[in-house]
Amino acid sequence: MKKFNIELKIDEIVSQVKGEYISRFDTKLDSVSELEDANPKSVCFFENEAYVNQLKACKAGLIIVSPDFDNSLNEFSNLLKVEKPYFTFMVLVKLWLEMDKQTKENIISSKAMISPSASIGENVSIADFVVIEDNVKIGNDSKIEANCVIKEGSVVGNNCHLFPNCTIYDNMVLGNSVVLHAGVVIGADGFGYILYDGVQEKVPQIGNVIIKDNVEIGANTCIDRGTLGSTIIEKNTKLDNLVQIGHNVRIGENTIICSQVGIAGSTTVGDLVYLAGQVGVADHVKIGNRVMAGAKSGIHSTLKDGIMVLGYPARDVALQRRIMAAETKLPDIYKNYLKNKKKENKE
Amino acid sequence: MKKFNIELKIDEIVSQVKGEYISRFDTKLDSVSELEDANPKSVCFFENEAYVNQLKACKAGLIIVSPDFDNSLNEFSNLLKVEKPYFTFMVLVKLWLEMDKQTKENIISSKAMISPSASIGENVSIADFVVIEDNVKIGNDSKIEANCVIKEGSVVGNNCHLFPNCTIYDNMVLGNSVVLHAGVVIGADGFGYILYDGVQEKVPQIGNVIIKDNVEIGANTCIDRGTLGSTIIEKNTKLDNLVQIGHNVRIGENTIICSQVGIAGSTTVGDLVYLAGQVGVADHVKIGNRVMAGAKSGIHSTLKDGIMVLGYPARDVALQRRIMAAETKLPDIYKNYLKNKKKENKE
Amino acid sequence: MKKFNIELKIDEIVSQVKGEYISRFDTKLDSVSELEDANPKSVCFFENEAYVNQLKACKAGLIIVSPDFDNSLNEFSNLLKVEKPYFTFMVLVKLWLEMDKQTKENIISSKAMISPSASIGENVSIADFVVIEDNVKIGNDSKIEANCVIKEGSVVGNNCHLFPNCTIYDNMVLGNSVVLHAGVVIGADGFGYILYDGVQEKVPQIGNVIIKDNVEIGANTCIDRGTLGSTIIEKNTKLDNLVQIGHNVRIGENTIICSQVGIAGSTTVGDLVYLAGQVGVADHVKIGNRVMAGAKSGIHSTLKDGIMVLGYPARDVALQRRIMAAETKLPDIYKNYLKNKKKENKE
C-alpha cells in the first residue's frame, strides 16, 4: 500500500480517465494498494483472474476493472470500467505521485558543499552532505539526494533525480530526466592494463560517460568512462541494479538491461534490445536492434537485428532449447556409445 | 589476530565454558588468533589435524582442544578441553566482542542531520553525516554508521547495525537485530517498464521492503521495493555481498543466499534454502524449503522441497553431474556419429 | 577528448620522447583525443589501419605515428614517428596528468571528521564529509575523496587515492599507491554461518584485509575481511568493478580480475592470472600462476600453473571448445540415437 500526502475526492480521480463509473458510495481516496490490503480510501485494479477471491472480499474505495466486468463479483467498492485496467491504474498513480511531489519544497541544504563555480538551475533540490565540485552544471528541477558527489566539470540536465550516495566522476554528461538510484557510480576508470616488463601498467582512462534523456539506472550499477572517447547510453534506456558497463560501450535507445549484466569494453548494443539477468557480453561485439538474450547468456560475437539467443556461447534460442533438451539424454547416449564401442572392438 | 580493548584473566575465560583446564602458567588474555600468529596473551583453537605443525610450535596463552587431545603435542600453552573446540572458540569470541562493545559510548553526532519528526530510541548511536529524514523511527540500541541515509517514514528496529554508506529508501521496515553492511541499498525501484508507442514507460514502484529480525545483508547488496506490495526477507536469513533481490520477492527463514546471486521479481524462496554464488532465479518461480542450488545454477521453474539442483537450466544434481561427465566425451561421440553417418551413406 | 589545465608547447612534448618529428606548424597543445574529435591543440595517435579515414581528415596539433608512416596520409598535422605510437601516447598522457595534478592544492577539509588520534601524513588531501576514526594512519601524498569512511585502526599507505563513497572497515591495511574507485567496500564480514538448533548462527569475522602496493580496485567491489586471519591482495594486482572476494582469499601479484568475478572463501589465486568477466571460483581452491579463465567459467578445483580454462565446470580450453562445437550437433546425435534404438528394438 502506498499512502499519498494528498487526498483526492473520488470524482477527481474518475474524471481523469474515460470509462464507465459505477458508484456505490462517496469517499475520499488517499492510497493505492493490492486488492487484499485495500481499505475504503484506496484504489485497486483487477485484471488477472487468479486474484478473483481477493477481489470478492475487497472493500476498496475504487477498483479499476475491464469493460466486461461482472459487477456482482464485488458489491462493496466503487467500480471504474476501462479498456486497460492496469495501465489506467499506472497512469493514475503517476499523476498522483506528481501532485504529491509538488507539496514539498525544494531546498538547497546549507550542509551541502557546492563550489562557487558550480552553476545550479532553478527549483533544484540539493540535500545534506552532497558535494558539488568546481564548474559542475545542474539544470532546472533536478533533485540531488543526500551524500551524492558530483566531481568537477560534470553536467546534470533538467529534471534529473540522483538518489543518495551516488558518485559522478569529473566531466560526465547527463541529459534531462535521468534517474540514478542509490550507489550508482558514473565514470570510474575503464579497466585497461598492459603487461610491461612483467608489471601491469595502467592505460590512462581519460574519456567520459554521456547519458541521454530519460535513462534510468539501478542501484549500485557502474558505468565506466571511455579510455579516450565516451561511453554512451542513448535515450529511454533502462539499466537495472548491479550492472557493469565497460569503457567505450554504446547502448542504443529504449533498451532494457537487467540486473547483474556485464558488458565489456567497446561493445555496441542496439535499440530496443533486451538482455536478461546475468547476461555477459564480450568486448568489441556488435549487438543489433531488437536482440533478446535469455538469462545468463554469454555473447561473444556479433548478433544481427531481431535475433533471440540463449546459452553459453549464446546461440539461436530454438537451437539452444533443443540442445538443452538433448543434454538430459546425453548420459544415455554416452552409455550407448560405450556399448557400441565395446561391440566394435569385439568384432 | 584480533586484539580486544578489554583484557581478561585466563580464569575469567575458562570459567565461561564446561571443560577440562590444563594450566601451565598464569596469564592475562587480550586477543584471539590463528595458531601461527599467537602470543602468550592470545586464545586459539585446534580442531583440524592439518595444522598440527603450527600447533606444536604455538605459544598461545590458551588453546582450545578436543577432550581426547594428547597434551604432549603442545607444552607451551594452557589447554582447555571441550567437545567442540571451534564452536566453543566462537562462543568466547562473541562474548568478548559483546564486552568490548560496551566500553564504547553511544553518541548521536552533532554532524548528523536528524529530522525533528524522527523518533530515536534509547542508547542509539548515530555517526557523522548520517541523514535521517522525516518520520523515521529507530528502535533502542541501534547503531547507524557514518554517511548512511534513511529516507522518510522508514522504520529500523532495536539493536540494528547499519555500516557506513547504506541507503534506506522511504517507507521501508527493518525488524530487530538487522545488520546491513556498507553500501547496501534497501528499496530502490523495482525494474518494471512497459513498451508503449515505442518508448519504455516506467511502471511506478510504490511498495516497500520488509526485513525481519536477525537478517544480515552483505556489502553493496540491493533489495528492490515491491511494485505495489512488499518485498519480504523473513527472519534469520543471510544475504552475502552484491546480491540482487527483485521487487515482490519473498525469501523464507534461515536461508543462505551467497554472493552475486540474482532473484528476479515475484519469486518466492522457502526456508533453509541454500543458493550458492552467482545463482540466478527467474521471475515468478517458487523455490521450496531446504532446496540447495550449486554455484551458477539458473533456476527457471518451480522446485519442490529438499531438491538439490545444479546447472543451467538447473537440473537434479545427480543428473547434472552425469551430464557434465558425459560432456567431456561429447567430441568423441560426435566423431563417431559422423563416421557412422558416412558409413550409412555409403551403404 | 581530455582537456588539461596546463598547456604545453609542442616542443615540450616532442622532447619527451625519442622519435622523428615532422613539423608543419607551431602550436600549443592542451588536450588529447581520438582522431575524429581532434583540434589543432590536441594530441592523437594512429596505430590501427581501421581508422585511416579518420586519420586523413584529422586536424590535430600532433599525431603520433609509427616510423614507416606515409606522411602524405595526413597533411594537416604535425607528426611524431616512434616505435610504439599507442604506448608513447600513453606515456605522454601520464606525464601530462601528473603535471596537471600538481597545480591543485591538497587540502584537509574543515568539513571532514578526523579523530584526534588519527595520524595524517604530509601533503594529504581529505575532502568534505570524510570520516576518519580513531587511530587510523594515512601516509604521505594520499587523497581521500568526499564521503569516504575509514574505520578505527586502519592504515592507508603513501600516495593512495580513494574515490568518493568508499568504506574501509576497522583494522584494514592498505599499502602504497593503492587506488579504490567509488563505492568500494574493504573489510565487510566474511559470509560464515553455522546452522545450530535450526537457526543460522554467525561465525564471528574478526580478521582483516591486507592490500599491497599498486593495487587498483574497481567501483563497488567488495573484499571481505578474514574470519580470523587476513584476506590478502598482493602487489600490482587489478580488480575491476563489482568483484566479490571472500574471506581469507589470497590473490597473487600482477593478476587481472575482471568485472563481476566472485571468489569464494579461502581460495588462493597465483601471480599473473587472468580471470575474465563473471568467472566464479569455489572456496578452498588453488589457482596456479599464469592461469587464464574465459568469461563465465566456474572453477571448482585446483588449476596448475599456466593452464587455460573455459566453461562450467571449467575445463581445458581446447577440450571445452570442442565440446561447445559438438553441442550444436547434439540434437542430431540424439535423433540418430533414438532412430537406432528403435531399430534395435525391432531387431
Overall shape of chain A: flat
Tell me which CATH architecture of the largest domain in chain A applies here. 3 Solenoid
First-to-last CA distance of chain A: 75 Å
Low-pLDDT segments of chain A: none
Radius of gyration of chain A: 26 Å
What is the oligomer described by this structure? homotrimer
Instruction: Count up the domains of chain A.
Output: 2
Strand content of chain A: 25-35%
Class of secondary structure makeup of chain A: alpha/beta
Mean pLDDT of chain A: 95
DSSP summary, beta strand count of chain A: 38
Main sheet record of chain A:
11 strands, mixed
CATH superfamily of the largest domain in chain A: Hexapeptide repeat proteins
Molecular structure report:
3 copies of one chain form a homotrimer. Chain A is an alpha/beta fold and 347 residues long. Chain A has 2 domains: 2-102, 3-Layer(aba) Sandwich (Udp-n-acetylmuramoylalanyl-d-glutamate--2,6- Diaminopimelate Ligase, Chain: A, domain 1), CATH 3.40.1390.10; 113-321, 3 Solenoid (UDP N-Acetylglucosamine Acyltransferase, domain 1). In chain A, 16% of the residues lie in helices and 29% in strands. Chain A contains 5 helices and 38 strands. In chain A, the strands form 5 sheets. In chain A, strands 9-12-15-18-23-26-29-32-35-37-38 form an 11-stranded mixed beta sheet, with helices on one face. In chain A, helix 2 links the parallel strand 4 (42-45) and strand 5. Chain A is flat. The mean pLDDT of chain A is 95. The interface between A and B is large, with 57 and 58 residues.
